[in-house]
Amino acid sequence: MNEKEKRPNIERPLTKDMRTDGQALDIKEYVRAGGYGGLRKALREMTPGDVQKAVSDSNLRGRGGAGFPTGKKWSFVPMGKDAPHPGFLISNSDEMEPGTFKDRILMEGNPHQLIEGMIISSYAIQADYAYIFLRMEYGESAKRLSKAIAEAYANNYLGKNILGSGYSLEMRLHLSAGRYMCGEETGLLNSLEGRRATPRAKPPYPQLCGLWGKPTVVNNAETLSNVPHIVKNGAQWFRGLSCTDDGGTKIYGASGKVRRPGAWELPLGTTVREILEEHAGGMREGLRFRGLLPGGASTGFLIEEHLDIRMDFDSVQKAGSRMGTGTMIVMDDRTCPVGMVRNLIKFFARESCGWCTPCRDGLPWVEDILHAIETGKGRHGDLELLEEHCALLAPGNTYCALAPGAVEPLQSALRYFREDFERHITQKSCPWR
Amino acid sequence: MLTETERREIEQELKSYGRKRAAGVEALKIVQRHRGWVSDEHLEEVAGILGVTPDELDGTATFYSLVFRREVGRHVILVCDSISCWITGYEDILCRLQNVLGIGLGGTTPDGRFTLLPVCCLGVCEQAPAVLIDGKVHGNLSPEKIESLLEKYE
């Protein structure tokens, strides 16, 4: 199919049932809206393999940032009577990517949707335990998810012999205690075992050797929230929600100095311009657009010439960046690009777990250089040095994706805003201050 | 010494996890909920309950930024210093907080009322700039709102 001609069905499965007063949908309201229908269907009419196939056919790709196909991720879990148990399914709800707030909206507004998605997904991989790994600062989500888990147990959607199907699942909410590294898949596993959230070497991958050495799948909260709808309405319907070949809607968002910062559920592949201008309302009065990070602090800048590309995994990648979490951070013309990149790098330097040298020592070094440039102490050759650091911190040189992600905005800023960097060095001061 | 209540809560928590050590972060947070922070003495007791060495547990405790290993004030203000808040003026918020409280980041007011700490993105970027006080989000801040905001916390 020609992507350009694909017209999506405008539906908003993830958010349409949410209440308008900001309160969570309780179990009665959720069931009245068709909730737990996907679970009933999965348990009564489908084998775990059928559920995996439906999710594979739906072309659902992970919403945590990397965009890995969800069905494919599940397919590596050993199945059958010889499969090791207990197996685990984990919702990565440790939303700490700066500029990202989409999972919070889903968890606060419709906690049962995530829980149902987790139960169905657990069934598909025959997991015995499910954990929601939630960041500590999300107190409201914690309260609402705890209540929803209790309601799900009370209605036998969780626990032993769920709805008489013979399938049993225990679910727990784990409230973390800070640190960005907990969102990294294997760092999360270490954290859940009560350790420092340092990454593990891969392979072995978590599907074979995850939590406590057992088969484990870690999916993002938005990814899992889609699963009930796929099971209930079918893979074809799900693909029809998107402008591209990847299925579904996406919770997009925008922050920075736009008129209406917020988040919106839109067809996957909505253009950057539509999100920025129609939904976020464009720039605040008197400000001009200069660039944006499409999906969190670890994604490279897009600029004016990219506004008409589609916000989907492949299109943004073709433009040299990544869609990431899909919640964009917008930079205006009164914001200094050097200062912005320095703030981003400072975050990553602080959040580095210290496990591997390039990241632990490289990022503070980069921060020092940027600080020098920003305060008028930059030297000729600094930009080349920064570029060298970008190469040294590239994928393959570090244990996990933290440092490679950290230098994505830097690398692109050096390309698109190079003159601004140079002005700092030649003027010996920040032109914005 | 941990109180009976703390011990009971920790024991309860152990049941939620497959193995004792997994409840470490949660156990430390239980102590922190009751005492505001985790002292060496209490850390050692918790390590005993979990069956890990105090050093091992301290390795975990010091990794997590929201487990406090030093005494904090009655109210903890976490100031988001990440990108969306930076763009929308967190530096002015921080500056005002520091001036009003007379302390820097990491400091506690002499009367023990407030501790001021930086925190990474709070996930409320549509309400930037924002701070979290005792777990409650305060968004769309401006320096002028700081003093009346602090008045709510005795």
Give structural notes:
The complex is a heterodimer of chains A (433) and B (154). Chain A has 433 residues and is of the alpha/beta class. Chain A has three domains: 3-240, NADH-ubiquinone oxidoreductase 51kDa subunit (Rossmann fold); 249-332, Ubiquitin-like (UB roll) (Roll), CATH 3.10.20; 337-427, Up-down Bundle (de novo design (two linked rop proteins)). Chain A is 41% helix and 11% strand. Chain A has helices spanning 27-32, 37-45, 48-57, 70-75, 102-109, 111-125, 139-154, 185-192, 221-233, 235-239, 272-279, 313-318, 337-351, 357-374, 382-392, 402-416, 418-427, and strands at residues 88-93, 129-134, 170-175, 216-220, 249-256, 262-267, 289-293, 327-332. In chain A, strands 3-2-1-4 form a four-stranded parallel β-sheet, with helices on both faces. In chain A, strands 6-5-8-7 form a four-stranded mixed β-sheet, covered by helices on one side. In chain A, helix 7 (139-154) links the parallel strand 2 (129-134) and strand 3 (170-175). In chain A, helix 2 (37-45) packs parallel to helix 6 and helix 13 packs antiparallel against helix 14 (357-374). Chain B starts with a helix and ends with a helix. Chain B has seven helices and four strands. Chain B has helices at residues 4-14, 24-35, 40-50, 54-63, 83-87, 90-101, 146-151; strands spanning 75-80, 114-119, 131-133, 136-138. Chain B has a four-stranded mixed β-sheet with strand order 2-1-3-4, with helices on one face. Chain B has 154 residues and is an alpha+beta fold. At the A-B interface, strand 3, strand 5, strand 8 and helix 13 of A face helix 2, helix 4 and helix 5 of B.
